[in-house]
Amino acid sequence: MFPPAQATEPGQSLARGAAGIALLHVERVHDRIGHWDTVHAWVKAATHDEVTAGDTAGLFFGAPAIAYLLTVAGQPAYGPVLRDLDGHIEALVRERLGLARDRIDRGCLPALSEFDLISGLTGFGAYLLLRGQGGDLLADVLGYLVRLTGPLKIGDIEVPGWWSANGLSDEESPDWPDGHGNFGMAHGIGGPLAFLSAAMMSGVSVSGQPEAVARICSALDRAQAGGDHWPGVVSLTDWTSGAPTGRTAERPSWCYGTPGIARAQQLAGIALDDQGRKRTAEQLLYECVTDERQLALLSDTSICHGWAGLLQVVWRTAKDADDSRLAGQLPRLIDGMDRRLNADPPGHCGLLEGAAGVELVRHTLARGTSRPLPWDACLLLDGGPKAAPHVVMNRQERDR
């Protein structure tokens, strides 16, 4: 399945390259339907070129992507390589935290890549939480994200501290002169919300973390404003008018739109013991997946913005839901994905937009359970391991 010769993207890309494809083979090995030799071959393909720990590195590319893969694999033989990678990752995180703190101190707005899941500090935090060896470094990432939720200003207008100065491509854009608020799981505040909540559920919390989760939820409430969906992004005009729901619903995907945001909100409800928020998130996801108009917006079968991502979100959310309604929708949604697969199979082999991701979701749903080191932790859908809560201090707090 998926010979390395078919991997045309950089191997160290978790999103499109060999690293992401290797995750499928890891799952197959742990279910006794694959072989470690196949996993090793894909790991070799993923590390064929020099693995970067530079500016382009993030959870889905470079040293963090390879370290994530090896952690999920859980193979003791990878231990020495992981320890070496962790040294590079710690240096990266320390450097980026320093830059982020300086930016906050200056009162400037962030780029999405500073904090998002794909490239930013949320992705690094997700890796540290999965690795279980974050310690002070994980606490410092959490402390940064708490600060990120505080207010900043555009002129006289107060905006959340995660309001991006850039356009949707994370570069300055005349179409977005005042930047934008991004709510998505992949590039927006949905990712930090899910991560902060998962950390709390895992028993890891820093001072101000519950309040930060609540602030993000309040921003999402404001963006929803009584509607039946959340916008993926909002302009400053939308934000100040308080009526962003005039836009049509986003496609029901993991990366943007109701499913990913609903799962993040459900995790927040669990973390805060806010049963009303949890039930509302589950209800809105149920309404989404039973609305054929929204399902018709799905244009492919991918994890990122297609059927597979929707299914993984619904499966995870259903496991934590108060009733079985979402679980009852899974057979119908699986049929929908299968019909799309038959008509329009994925164009490449990668994880986020290709065949490996689709097969991972199909494999997971067929098995019906998740491993202690879940492959979808990189999507911030797993919720993290459950543990007794405790509070840790980040380094800045200890130095006061």
In short:
The protein is mainly α and 400 residues long. The chain has helices at 18-30, 36-46, 63-73, 79-105, 112-115, 121-131, 135-148, 190-201, 209-224, 236-241, 258-272, 275-289, 292-295, 307-319, 325-343, 355-367, 395-398, and strands at 151-154, 157-160, 181-182, 204-205, 233-234, 390-391. A two-stranded antiparallel sheet has the order 1-2.
Provide a descriptive summary of the structure in words.
This protein has 400 residues and is mainly alpha-helical. Helices cover 52% and strands 4% of the residues. It is built from 17 helices and 6 strands. The model is unreliable at 4-8 and 386-393 (pLDDT under 50). It has helices at 18-30, 36-46, 63-73, 79-105, 112-115, 121-131, 135-148, 190-201, 209-224, 236-241, 258-272, 275-289, 292-295, 307-319, 325-343, 355-367, 395-398; strands at 151-154, 157-160, 181-182, 204-205, 233-234, 390-391. It has a two-stranded antiparallel ribbon. This is Lanthionine synthetase C family protein.
